[in-house]
Design a protein that fits this description.
globular; Rossmann fold; alpha/beta; 46% helix
Amino acid sequence: MRIAFWTEFYAPFIGGGETVVRLLAEELVRQGHQALVITNLLPGTAADEVINGVRVCRFEISRAAEQRNLLTLRHASAAILSLKRSFDPQVEHMHTTGPMLMVHQMVSRDAPSPLISSLHLLNESLAPLLRANGSAAALLRRAEWIVTPSDIHRETLLALEPAVGARVRTMPCGSPVPALAPSPLPFAPPGLLCFGRIIPEKGFDLAIRSLPSVRQRHPGTRLIIGGDGVERVNLERLVGELGLNEAVHFSGWIQPADLPAAVNLATVVLAPSRWQEPFGIVVLDAAVMARPVVATAVGGFRKSAEAGLIAALAEPENPGSLANAICDLLADPARAQRLGNLARQVACEHYSLSGFFQFHLDLYQRTAAATVAVSSP
């Protein structure tokens, strides 16, 4: 099959939606299909390259949209139109409701393709998005299938757009099981890990603010922050103000191939988000390495805790609650290891990459087959 993905960002940039696209695209290629990613051209990226067999084509869209640079947007649209006609996708899979959606509409007028849309946004963002963004509402009405990451998102969408009900499917994220085996949790000294985009919504500052209390009860505990983003300079300043320079290390982006080994060094993985996470792939990345996760009680994290993927939930915006949840695990190594092992079992049995991929491949094949049947004489 030939599948074209649309996403605001792609590797080397790392985030939940970006990870979903990467996993699907790379698995398609591994199984003998073709994948094309259409995304934004950002500093440090190439306009056209192949990453792990996936062709990635980047265009200057988001910045042009912000600057209302219609000439650049027209040039991007023309280039993507040519690219689409050359690649001739059997299905397009949309993973954004951002500025790229406008360009997609422009291109689709001249080169329409069967469309699937995956929603990665916050549950509470659906209503204002559909009110303010006619392109997003049109996307949902046009898509052959709409994929939501949880039943909560599905129910919210159906309340807003009941007409799409028959075309909505729910599929939580899946994760590959690394070849690297999980190592026993280290406690001498304990290590905490946050990773992902360093933005205010992820709450990494709460992890830093919790650390003095954790170190008071468990001396020597260190925190590694993997990732990068606009908030990094503020976090580095906060670390200095709290006198934690020797206890906190900023590692920069952890590439997917290196992530299992990085997680293997942690005792506890932290996900202290302010954002109402739709699902939280960081949780799966920790779970497959048998690491207990302490997260804030927001969004999809509540469901993940019920499923056994998260060891403990802390109150949002509360470093003290976060510290207490961390210390409860560090004080009972056997319980921490047991909860980590449970998370791995749940992830492997119910959130596998193979199941996640097969779900999407079936959708692609059904969509392409239906389109062929309709167009046949």
